[in-house]
UniProtKB/TrEMBL annotation:
Cofactors that this protein relies on: Co(2+); Zn(2+); Mn(2+); Fe(2+)
Domain Peptidase M24: 11-239
Residues annotated for a divalent metal cation 2 binding in this entry: D105, H168, E201, E232
PANTHER family in alphabetical order: METHIONINE AMINOPEPTIDASE
Listed EC numbers: 3.4.11.18
SUPFAM superfamilies, alphabetized: Creatinase/aminopeptidase
Residues the record lists as binding substrate: H77, H175
The name this protein goes by in its record: Methionine aminopeptidase
Keywords carried by this UniProt record: Aminopeptidase, Hydrolase, Metal-binding, Protease
Gene of this entry: map
Species name: Tigheibacillus halophilus
Similarity field: Belongs to the peptidase M24A family. Methionine aminopeptidase type 1 subfamily.
Assembly, per entry: Monomer.
Length: 250
């Protein structure tokens, strides 16, 4: 069932989003060669608990960690690990924060040390594609408008759009209807309505869009070992421009 959030519910989600933004800004300071994603995961869990929040995805369908940490050719749901990040890696840290029942979800791809020009370009196009999708996320538009904007932009830049994982509604639980694909046709799909809260989270690959699953049953990676980047915001649909709850530049 698709729910439209009340003003109070959105205010609670904004509190979670504000804390999530703080966490990402702290992670940005930590990212460097030699750091491990397990160290980042431990930091995130401690930071959230110190601020009266919990990592919503820990325990979700048996998931063991506060974050997902996906490196290079891993598309999403990578496990935090004790392997040290290397100079030139790219790593996506994805998490959901719960503050008194209000949820916010955001992923960010970070460059580790000196990333090559192709990696920087992948990250830049992926971030731009997120905002291309957000521009279409308003009352009266359709889900296909979001996906079409992302797909046409990313593919014109020479990249591919992952099909197997999508954005989603959020609140009161982690994954709510509707699904928000990052590809599609304009004017198609469910009509967006004021008060809906969704995530847009394009995963963009250097090579082909197809993915394969690791034996752990969680981690998806590219089939051709091309790198993948992802950026995600939680947004509120309004009559005008959407409200980006997890915006980092406020």
């Amino acid at each position: 069932m698709i729910t439209r959030k009340s003003k109070r519910e959105i205010e609670e989600m904004q509190k979670a989003a504000d804390l999530l933004v703080l966490v990402h800004k702290e992670i940005a300071k930590m990212i460097k060669p030699g750091v491990t994603t397990m160290e980042i995961d431990t930091f995130v869990e401690d930071f959230l608990r110190q601020h009266g929040a919990t990592p919503e995805q820990k325990g979700f369908n048996g998931y063991k960690y506060a974050t997902c940490a996906s490196i290079n050719d891993e598309i999403c749901h990578g496990f935090p690990r004790k392997q040290k990040l290397a100079d030139g890696d790219i790593v996506t840290i994805d998490m959901v924060v719960n503050v008194n029942g209000g949820l916010a979800d955001s992923a960010w791809t970070y460059g580790v040390g000196d990333v090559d020009s192709d990696g920087k370009r992948l990250m830049g196009v992926t971030l731009n594609s997120l905002y291309k999708g957000i521009e279409q996320a308003r009352d009266g538009n359709r889900i296909g408008d979001i996906g079409h904007a992302i797909q046409t932009y990313a593919e014109a830049e020479g990249f591919s759009v992952v099909r197997d994982f999508t954005g989603h509604g959020i609140g009161p639980t982690l994954h709510e209807e509707p699904h928000i694909p990052h590809f599609g046709k304009p004017g198609k799909g469910l009509r967006l309505k004021e008060g809906m809260v969704i995530t847009i989270e394009p995963m963009i690959n250097e090579g082909t869009w197809q993915s394969k699953m690791d034996n752990n049953g969680w981690t998806a990676r590219t089939i051709d070992k091309g790198r993948s980047a992802q950026y995600e915001h939680t947004i509120v649909i309004t009559k005008g421009a959407p409200i980006v709850l997890t915006e980092q530049n406020r």
